[in-house]
Design a protein that fits this description.
With 474 residues, this protein is α/β, with parallel strands linked by helices. The chain folds into two domains: 145 residues, Vcp-like ATPase, Chain A, domain 2; 221 residues, Vaccinia Virus protein VP39 (Rossmann fold). Helices cover 41% and strands 16% of the residues. The protein contains 17 helices and 16 strands. A seven-stranded mixed β-sheet has the order 10-9-8-11-12-16-13, with helices on both faces. Strands 2-1-7-5-6 form a five-stranded antiparallel β-sheet. A two-stranded antiparallel ribbon has the order 3-4. It starts with a helix and ends with a helix.
Length: 474
């Protein structure tokens, strides 16, 4: 009984959870916060009533921005579509078939009518609705529902949903990575629980979150990031439990060469060379060219000032000094945390026994791949994504030249959506033109001794030919 209650609680929305709002084909990731106004598709509402409801519930927006769970309807409005015509050729789209005007519809909204009721009013006041075919009537009802029904579905975040959300709203932010291509990356990279995976991506954290979701909180993930810090906006939208983040490590990509050469120093000074000696209390650096006050001038000025003003200046100086000490301590703590993270990630990478490598970034992948592939153990997979195939062709050529990788494959992703309805199943007219390209392969250990002995083995055939010549002479 307790297990069933726990499963039911996991399927319900709690305050502070990250959810995905869905209306039609449009998604938006938000965090559940009470008394906070949320704007979605030019409409605002509050998410207070969502807490405690099951994921996948559809809500209707009522007056005042309040969400109410939609009650299941046994009879749909499309029941009126029983009276249908057999042909649409005589129907003219002249704009005169609808008796309700825009002002009438706005009046109905002000009166508090719901979207379903407004759609029914439009059906009743249409002079050509009864003459349309059954398919045309369903299409008309679907179109009006999408426009006038104020419904929102609350979904649990997942890799597929978030990938569709980013690709539909901001595809450039994730390098136009489509969700089917992301699924192939997880499969080709052999991402599973208990493995050690290296991830280098500039897709707002979507690829990193997908890898963490597939691993389920077991194993370790090392995020290789460029610049001053890692980008993990997409990881937060997944809403992972705290123990998922314990498996996540970070390592700057600019220190890879030093780590491979064995010259990496994990001291805090090597991480951030800035010091607090030349920083004043207000956060500005001291200017050596600024005019300095003479001691005699300071003495004359102190004689003219009021003792009360002197005490106020001393208090302000003491507070400024305290703030400076606090900022210095906070900086030391941050530096120590950053040093520990760098040392932990370096310890994971020094073994060069990673189980997988995933690369998806806007940078040129060739130097990144050639540097990070050295951290993989033999017989481990790697996969590289690029929106264009030319960079991956260069990676393919370099790997073939230097060796260390087999089963190299350069593929492109293609997907087609179908509308599956009775007597009208056909491909959707609007679909994605391309899903990018993937380069995948498997690492192998190179035997240098075998390469050195190869020329001596090549000399054996001439010796055999000499023996054959002697036999023929005899």
């Amino acid at each position: 009984m307790a297990d069933s209650e726990d499963d039911d609680s996991q399927q319900r929305v709690n305050e502070g959870d990250y959810v995905v709002l869905k209306r039609g084909d449009i998604y938006k990731a938000v965090q559940i916060q009470k008394k906070k106004k949320t704007v979605f598709e030019k409409q605002w509402f509050f998410l207070d009533n969502v807490v405690g409801e099951l994921y996948g519930t559809t809500f209707e927006v009522v007056t005042g921005g309040t969400l109410q769970p939609r009650k299941p309807k046994h009879v749909e409005s499309s029941a009126d579509a029983k009276e249908a015509g057999t042909d649409n050729r005589h129907i003219q789209d002249d704009g005169k078939s609808q008796k309700l005007t825009r002002d009438d519809i706005e009046t109905l909204k002000e009166q508090g009518l719901k979207g379903q009721e407004i759609v029914q009013q439009l059906i009743d006041n249409s002079t050509t609705f009864r003459d349309k075919t059954e398919f045309a009537q369903e299409k008309y009802i679907k179109k009006k529902k999408k426009k006038y029904e104020n419904s929102v579905m609350v979904l649990r975040p997942s890799c597929r949903i978030l990938a569709m959300m980013y690709h539909g709203r901001e595809p450039g932010k994730i390098c136009h990575l489509r969700y089917d291509t992301l699924a192939q990356m997880l499969t080709l990279g052999n991402i599973h629980a208990g493995s050690k995976v290296l991830v280098f991506e500039t897709c707002a954290g979507l690829v990193l979150g997908a890898v963490m979701e597939r691993m389920g909180g077991y194993g370790s993930v090392v995020q290789m990031y460029p610049g001053g810090g890692p980008a993990r906006g997409g990881v937060e939208n997944f809403g992972f439990p705290p123990h998922f983040h314990n498996t996540l490590h970070e390592f700057p990509i600019q220190h890879v060469n030093a780590l491979l050469a064995g010259t990496l120093d994990t001291d805090a000074k090597s991480i951030d060379p800035t010091t607090t000696d030349d920083v004043q209390a207000n956060g500005e650096k001291s200017d050596p060219t600024a005019p300095q006050m003479d001691s005699t001038d300071a003495g004359d000025q102190s004689m003219e000032t009021n003792p009360v003003e002197i005490s106020a200046v001393e208090k302000e100086a003491e507070e400024r000094e305290k703030r400076r000490e606090i900022r210095g301590q906070e900086k030391k703590v941050k530096m120590e945390e950053k040093r520990k993270k760098l040392a932990a990630a370096a310890a994971l990478l020094q073994g060069r026994n990673a189980d997988g490598l995933v690369i998806a970034s806007r940078f040129h992948p060739c130097p990144v791949l050639l540097g990070l592939i050295r951290f993989l153990a033999p017989s481990r997979p790697f996969v590289v994504y690029s929106q264009y195939k030319e960079p991956l062709i260069e990676c393919y050529t370099k790997l073939r030249e230097q060796g260390g990788a087999i089963s190299l494959r350069l593929t492109d992703s293609w997907i087609r959506h179908y509308q599956v309805l009775p007597n009208r199943t056909h491909p959707v007219l609007l679909m994605s033109g391309g899903g990018g390209y993937l380069l995948s392969g498997t690492t192998v250990a190179t035997d240098t001794q075998q390469v050195k002995t190869a020329p001596t083995r090549a000399e054996e055939p001439p010796a055999k030919r000499a023996k054959l010549d002697e036999a023929t002479e005899a």
